[in-house]
Amino acid sequence: MRVYADLEFYYETYGGVKLSNETELKRWIMRATSEIRQYTFGRIDQMENIPEEAQMCCCEVAERLYMADNAKSENGAILQSYSNDGESATYAVADISEDAVKKEVYGIIHRWLSLTGLMYCGVRSYESEL
Q: How confident is the model over 34-63, as pLDDT tens digits?
């Protein structure tokens, strides 16, 4: 399976820091590629070179999927504030439902790729160009 970003791109160009384990990064890059492939109808696979927008998108989606998975294992609780006097803490519960994560992933993909034509689901007519 062709992936849309690699380790070097993630660290050097995207400046990623959330995924420091290379094995985990490969796993999340593959999952992100799969998500992007669905919304672009596999068009990127047909291209000789992967556009930088698609690579950046892949890195951001990989990080989001990774964070959602980690939040699930931590019950989605994020420490929002902590008071030392009375030992109290306030937690914000992240919306980690499958639907919420899908919406966020779609938003990331749309932001990066909507102007590239890769997400166009219609039929192009080339007769007017002849």
A: 999 999 999 999 999 999 999 999 999 999
pTM to 2 decimals?
Answer: 0.78
- Among 21, 15, 30, which Cα is nearest to 65's? 30
Amino acid at 31: R
What is the token pair recorded at 124? 């192009």
**Residue in the block written with tokens 């030992």:** 87
Question: Which residues in 1-130 belong to E strands, given as ranges?
Answer: 77-83, 88-93
Q: Which of 55, 10, 64 is nearest to 33 (CA)?
A: 55
Q: Could you report the per-residue pLDDT of 75-112, keeping only the tens digit for each? A: 555 545 556 666 665 555 555 678 889 999 999 999 99
User: For residue 19, what pLDDT band results from cuts at 50, 70 and 90?
Assistant: confident
- Closest CA relative to residue 39, chosen from 123, 102, 93, 127: 102
DSSP single-letter state for residue 44: G
Separation CA 8–CA 6 (nearest Å) = 6
Give the H or E element holding residue 82.
strand 77-83
Determine the distance from the C-alpha atom of residue 18 to the mean position of all C-alpha atoms in its chain, rounded to a whole number: 12
